[in-house]
Amino acid sequence: xxxxxxxxxxxxxxxxxxxxxxxxxxxxxxxxxxxxxxxxxxxxxxxxxxxxxxxxxxxxxxxxxxxxxxxxxxxxxxxxxxxxxxxxxxxxxxxxxxxxxxxxxxxxxxxxxxxxxxxxxxxxxxxxxxxxxxxxxxxxxxxxxxxxxxxxxxxxxxxxxxxxxxxx
Length: 168
Prior knowledge:
Structural class: mainly beta
Order of helices and strands: EEEEEEEEEH
Number of helices: 1
Radius of gyration: 19 Å
Distance between the termini: 40 Å
């Protein structure tokens, strides 16, 4: 079945187990509300009951309507697994959370390269993105505007005072 059609929950053999999930703000402390554009990390605490050689860690970001905003895993990004005995930590670090203001849900997974599920957490973690800007969509790409000819636009006084401030 398609993971995108699965409901909220947790499943898998637990040969590799995700024992904890933390959403971390730019200062490295746990948070559940983030400003659009700021850094965010997802920290997975993981454990292998017996040593395993074949493992992949993955992450998926979804909006509340279930639309996948982004998904990847260590196999897609061409990481090779080495023997994993015991406990460890995996971090997925985003330098800039470029999403528009909304509530989002997170999938985290540990599985084999062939998709055999060790531990899949589907839509179990929620976070909120805030912004003083009110753009639409899902993704807020880093961008700039340029103007030429008779077009004359300039930043508002508020934007000039604190151009990095994305607070409501």
